[in-house]
Write a structure and sequence with these properties.
The protein is mostly helical and 210 residues long. It folds into three domains: 63 residues, Tetratricopeptide repeat domain (Serine Threonine Protein Phosphatase 5, Tetratricopeptide repeat), CATH 1.25.40.10; 52 residues, no CATH class; 54 residues, no CATH class. Helices cover 59% and strands 3% of the residues. The protein contains ten helices and two strands; from the N terminus they run ααααααααααββ. Strands 1-2 form a two-stranded antiparallel ribbon. α2 runs antiparallel to α3. The longest helix has 14 residues. The chain is globular. It starts with 13 loop residues before the first helix and ends with a strand.
């Protein structure tokens, strides 16, 4: 990725430029650099919740979770209460909170946390489908979706998603290592299922086989 100078700090698009650059660096697993750019954006517009989310995500994915989790909670108060009936509540909540264009929290980190915590199978499946499309450009979300599928017993789907991710983004060390684990422990009988426990994005975490 070629380095480029941002607009002048007083320019109207300075913060957005820095935030967009931070997002791009996250996709390249350059989280430490992403934090620096996200901090520039957050300092320029401290009241912009969407930019604060970029900073929190960058910190979280760098393993600086304590700092990140000081940013997330105060933003919760802005989350609107869903007004839809039970058949559309997931779609409405996703649109208001997580969607990249309309959500106040377009965060793959928070979306993943919500997805893993939904107890109702039908609602969980709907949420995963929405998030999978919305955060297709997020290697963090895609990796962890594959791990979740593996732990749920859907090993072929997990393998396919991880394989596709490594093909598209070969610089992702974490995904490559876990794809290798898949190959090394592949069991045609389906009796053994890899169980993944990622620590944080961009760092190899290993895996435990059940």
């Amino acid at each position: 990725m070629q380095e480029s100078k941002p607009p002048a700090a007083e320019a109207g698009d300075y913060a957005q430029h820095c935030a967009a650059y931070a997002k791009a660096l996250i996709g390249l697993a350059r989280c430490a650099d992403a934090v620096q750019w996200a901090q520039k954006a957050a300092e320029a517009t401290p009241d912009d919740a969407r930019i604060q989310i970029v900073l929190a995500d960058a910190l979280h994915l760098c393993g600086r979770c304590e700092e990140a989790h000081k940013i997330y909670p105060p933003l919760e108060a802005a989350v609107p209460q869903p007004q839809a009936d039970s058949s559309t509540i997931v779609a409405e909540m996703f649109s208001q909170v997580f969607a990249l264009e309309t959500g106040i929290w377009p965060s793959p980190v928070l979306a993943l946390a919500i997805a893993e915590g939904i107890a109702d199978p039908q609602q969980a499946n709907e949420f995963w489908q929405l998030a999978e499309l919305e955060f297709y450009d997020s290697p963090y979300f895609r990796m962890n979706h594959a791990y979740n599928l593996a732990e749920s017993g859907e090993v072929p789907r997990a393998f396919a998603k991880l394989f596709a991710l490594v093909q598209e983004m070969p610089w992702l060390r974490e995904a490559s290592i876990n794809l290798l684990i898949f190959f090394e422990h592949f069991d045609p009988s389906g009796d053994k299922q890899p169980v993944f426990r990622p620590l944080y994005f961009g760092v190899a975490f290993g895996a435990r086989l059940g």
